[in-house]
């Protein structure tokens, strides 16, 4: 839900928005709505509270348009901060449900990707409407001299450059997705290394009170060479190195700028190209084209930084739970070994002279 309020006595413009996550059915998502407010204050000061001296409507409308980029960025960044969880069987069933298309359509207005596209899409749609109004006025000889030309052009340049734009967008998205996969692999390596390293620490701990336990555990677990411990430490270093590389080195900026400039020039000239065939239909045509192509580019920008898209909190909690389970398993093994040793000692005192191994089992 989005609301716009203006104070009649001041020059302050405020946007209020309730941004609710799209997948409310997922239990691991934050059930609370994502709310924020953005305040835009004009530069006029010391104005009287007299209604006759209120800023004109055009100035208020201008302040609204100027505030849209900040508002869209706030929506996008708030969505990037949302906690994500790991999928379970229930979430996968919902993910491939036959009703997913309807659910995705109904959640369009709450999508942060769609909301973040409002500034460029509205800008190009407004520009298309201005071109259409100008051409209509020239054709009808309304308010404009006859020597003003109608803005039209051949569609051949668009037919020749469309494949290039498609390749730019595809490569941009593929490169961003590759970074996302690499970040996921790096964190998987870190979590697996944490679990293995914690297991090794418990196995090779040096403490006089734990020497019997250590001897018993070495009978159940193959001795880990020192080099294996070093490889686990290097596993952490490799994962951290990959994360630092992904965070510090984006996709080449020249490629990002080229794609952005190509999209902007494409949609600035699109109304002129389509005028002869579409006339006033250039306005919805430009809107649909801008919304579609800029959406593809926006998704690539979002997943270029993979870490906000990963369920890092859930992964860290999983590593914590794995270590806790290892500790509980160690305590259980220790309890069982102590019980076996007591039982072996009792048998020895009752007349059995066979020696027993430290884990309580008789020697063969």
From TrEMBL:
Molecular-function annotations in GO: voltage-gated chloride channel activity
Compartments where located: Membrane
Keywords, sorted A to Z: Ion transport, Membrane, Transmembrane, Transmembrane helix, Transport
GO biological process: regulation of photosynthesis, light reaction
Main location: membrane
One CC-aspect GO term: membrane
Transmembrane parts of this sequence: 113-134, 154-171
Location of region: Disordered: 341-364
Keyword Transport: yes
Superkingdom field: Eukaryota
InterPro entries: VCCN1/2, YneE/VCCN1/2-like
Name of this chain's protein: UPF0187 protein At3g61320, chloroplastic isoform X2
């Amino acid at each position: 839900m989005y609301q716009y309020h203006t104070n009649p006595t001041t020059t302050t413009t405020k946007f209020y928005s309730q941004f609710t996550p799209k997948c409310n059915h997922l239990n691991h998502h934050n059930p609370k709505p994502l709310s924020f407010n953005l305040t835009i204050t004009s530069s006029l000061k010391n104005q009287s509270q007299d209604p006759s001296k209120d800023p004109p409507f055009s100035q208020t409308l201008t302040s609204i348009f100027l505030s849209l980029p900040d508002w869209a960025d706030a929506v996008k960044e708030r969505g990037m901060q949302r906690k994500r969880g790991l999928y379970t069987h229930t979430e996968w069933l919902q993910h491939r449900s036959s009703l997913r298309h309807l659910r995705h359509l109904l959640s369009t207005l709450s999508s942060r990707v769609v909301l973040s596209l409002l500034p460029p899409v509205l800008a190009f749609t407004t520009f298309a409407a201005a071109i259409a109004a100008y051409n209509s006025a020239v054709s009808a000889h309304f308010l404009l001299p006859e020597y003003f030309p109608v803005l039209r052009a051949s569609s051949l340049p668009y037919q020749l450059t469309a494949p290039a734009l498609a390749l730019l967008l595809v490569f941009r998205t593929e490169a961003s997705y590759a970074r996302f996969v690499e970040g996921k692999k790096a964190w998987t390596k870190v979590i697996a290394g944490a679990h293995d390293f914690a297991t090794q620490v418990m196995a090779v701990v040096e403490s006089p009170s734990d020497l019997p336990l250590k001897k018993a555990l070495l009978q159940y677990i193959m001795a880990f060479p020192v080099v294996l411990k070093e490889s686990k430490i290097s596993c952490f270093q490799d994962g951290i190195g990959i994360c630092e590389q992904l965070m510090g080195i984006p996709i080449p900026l020249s490629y990002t700028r080229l794609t952005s400039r190509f999209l902007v020039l494409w949609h600035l000239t699109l109304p002129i190209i389509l005028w002869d065939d579409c006339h006033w239909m250039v306005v919805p045509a430009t809107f649909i084209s801008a919304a579609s192509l800029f959406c593809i580019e926006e998704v690539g920008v979002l997943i270029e930084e993979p870490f906000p898209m990963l369920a890092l909190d859930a992964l860290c909690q999983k590593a914590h739970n794995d270590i806790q389970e290892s500790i509980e398993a160690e305590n259980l093994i220790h309890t069982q070994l102590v019980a076996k040793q007591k039982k072996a000692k009792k048998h020895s005192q009752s007349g059995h002279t066979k020696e027993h191994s430290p884990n309580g089992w008789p020697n063969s």
